[in-house]
Design brief:
This protein is an alpha/beta fold and about 325 residues long. It is built from 11 helices and 9 strands. Helix 2 (about 30-50) packs parallel to helix 3 (about 70-90), helix 4 packs across helix 11 (about 290-295) and helix 5 (about 150-160) runs antiparallel to helix 8.
């Protein structure tokens, strides 16, 4: 739940973490996630308003994610948004979750305007998109199979690093040297990504080293660093190509994977002086409501608010 002023200024941005609930299962359990949404969202609404000394009637617009995402969670959100809009006599706007990740950059750089080039990397998406104008997107590259975030989560599981996998792999990689256990950097023609082969390469490397139980801490760190490096270099190789082909004054790197330490550092080096690079802070990279409110500002209103778990750009 978030409160955003004029689509650019965050007044409140609250997140109820479900990590403890899902950790025993090594990943998100859809039923538990939907139940947590149902139980926690109303309280977050009250807390956000109370912190700012506001009432429902002070809100101009209610924004909600329509998709992509887990259908149970989306349905809870849409239902709550429609109820709040009716109670407060305010309009409600449905938002594409992917658009939200890009608009998180506008919360970081309030003067940022399209045209821009964006690399959106999350648990389910690895997309290169052009944004020629507000609320207009053109996909120019994407993954053929696994998304970068999914690959990182599975790599963390392969290395026994725990859940959530992204932050765990990031921490472990900081203690390793990618050169000691080098892994291939996936590279397809054009602007397409593929990470399934890299996952397999890591699995085979662990097997050849005697299995997970045979890994010492130093080797585990080296493998984490090597896997992280391969993912990051693959992502940025295509961003580099895209920026050469479609020069833009602004470049955005966003989505949950954009919280990764190496990706943030290497993106600055790759973009260099060709454009202004904006990477939201980690709190706005991972899923949050502020980015949804930002994307809703000035967007055309949807007449039919229906949750769509497979919604694309």
């Amino acid at each position: 739940m978030a409160l955003v002023e004029d689509g650019r200024r965050v007044l409140a941005n609250l997140v109820h973490s479900q990590e403890r609930a899902h950790a025993p299962y090594g990943g998100v359990v859809p039923e538990l996630a939907a139940r947590a949404h149902l139980e926690k969202l109303p309280g977050l609404v009250r807390e956000a308003l109370d912190r700012q000394g506001l009432r429902g009637g002070d809100v101009d617009l209610v924004a909600v994610t329509l998709g992509p995402g887990l259908v149970g969670c989306l349905l809870v959100g849409v239902g709550l948004a429609q109820g709040l809009a009716a109670a407060w006599d305010r309009p409600v706007a449905g938002v594409n979750h992917l658009w939200g990740h890009v608009y998180a950059a506008l919360l970081t750089q309030p003067d940022l305007e399209p045209p821009l080039l964006a690399l959106v990397v999350s648990g389910a998406h690895s997309d290169l998109v052009r944004m020629p104008a507000h609320h207009r997107f053109e996909v120019i590259g994407r993954t053929r199979d696994d998304a970068a975030g999914e690959a990182v989560d599975k790599a963390a599981r392969t290395l026994g690093l725990g859940y959530p996998g992204g932050p765990a792999l990031d921490r472990q990689a900081r203690r390793g040297d990618p050169r000691r256990q080098a892994l291939p950097v996936p590279s397809l023609p054009g602007l397409e990504y593929s990470f399934s082969g890299l996952k397999t390469a890591l699995l085979y490397r662990v097997r050849d080293l005697g299995g997970l139980d045979a890994l010492d801490e130093a080797t585990r760190s080296d493998l984490a660093a090597a896997f992280e490096r391969s993912v990051v270099e693959s992502l940025l190789e295509k961003l580099d190509r895209a920026l050469d082909r479609w020069p833009a004054p602004e470049v955005v790197v966003c989505g949950g994977v954009a919280a990764n330490t190496l990706l943030r550092r290497r993106a600055e080096e790759v973009v260099g002086g060709r454009a202004r690079l904006t990477i939201p802070p980690p709190s706005l990279c991972t899923d949050n409501a502020a980015m949804i409110a930002a994307a809703a500002s000035g967007a055309p209103r949807e007449a039919d608010l229906r949750a769509d778990p497979s919604l694309d750009w």
